[in-house]
Amino acid sequence: MKKKIILKDVYKSFGEGLRVLNGISLEIEDGESRIIVGRSGCGKSVLLKCLLGIMKIDGGDILVDGIGVGDKKRFPEYMRKFSILFQGNALFDSMTVLENVTFALGRTERDKSLRKLKAEEKLAAVGLEKRVFDLYPAEISGGMQKRAALARAIAVEPEILLFDEPTSGLDPVTGGVICNLLRDTVELLGVTSVTITHDLRVAEFLSDKVSVLNEGNVVWTGHTREMETCGNEFVKNFHRASNVISKVRRN
Ligand SMILES: Nc1ncnc2c1ncn2[C@@H]1O[C@H](COP(=O)(O)OP(=O)(O)O)[C@@H](O)[C@H]1O
Ligand SMILES: [Mg+2]
Questions:
Q1: Burial of 88 by CB count in 10 Å (0-12 exposed, 13-18 middle, 19+ buried)?
Q2: pLDDT digits 0-9 by tens, 176-202
Q3: Which of 16, 37, 46, 217 to mutate for ligand 1's pocket (most ligand atoms within 8 Å of CB)?
Q4: Tens digits of per-residue pLDDT, 78-96?
Q5: Are residues 237 and 209 in the same domain?
Q6: Count of structural domains within the chain
Q7: Domain that holds residue 107
Q8: Statement to judge: residues 75 and 192 lie in one domain
Q9: What ligand 1 atom has the least distance to the C-alpha of 196?
Q10: Could you give the CA distance from residue 239 to residue 251 in angstroms, rounded to a whole number?
């Protein structure tokens, strides 16, 4: 399989003391859905920002389809490959749901009426009803906001979808529904996806290929079902703790 994303010995620090990414290496194949899990604060969002090229790395390299993140000439081409579903959705409060999506389409679609048509099509594709299109983000539920943000992310037809904590702020039932929607969308579009989360149950919904991040490095990559019996103590503990949390939530 063709490698879509390659991280080679990537370093990122803040100030003098805080080394967040400590020589991390990672390879993701074309069409793969990879989950990256790790404790809160371990550097997952930083990793995504470095991959997107909106945060500069200190050392190493990131390649997407062979294009380096630091290649200034080809950066527009690099950037266009991605869409991200941000943790807080990042919808514009002063724009309606529909305007949020049409605005994003300004990047790729010149024709104004086509832009509107396309935006409506994407909103319908993520399961939003017409009555929601003209509402503002503050007027709709968290689940609907997630759907609107997803519609905006896929409207520009990216090759890679990035999901940052896609279930944060949602109740467990809505979180499950959204995970299913993300999985179906990724499958339907045939895109490569990278999801970062501290919640292992997200991994179980979205894909079974997981990389575990700890102390700035990938300490293990494998399938969720192998976590309990693998040789890595950190991974075993992480898996056990997640199971305990889901049991507590179920009771
Ligand atoms: N812009 C920044 N300046 C300084 N420190 C940062 C910055 N962004 C993130 N950090 C620090 O990097 C660490 C990892 O953060 P983050 O990637 O957001 O964690 P998470 O795994 O929860 O997404 C944290 O200690 C955070 O405080
Ligand atoms: Mg984060």
A1: exposed
A2: 999 999 999 999 999 999 999 988 888
A3: 46
A4: 999 999 998 888 899 999 9
A5: yes
A6: 2
A7: 92-157
A8: yes
A9: 23
A10: 19
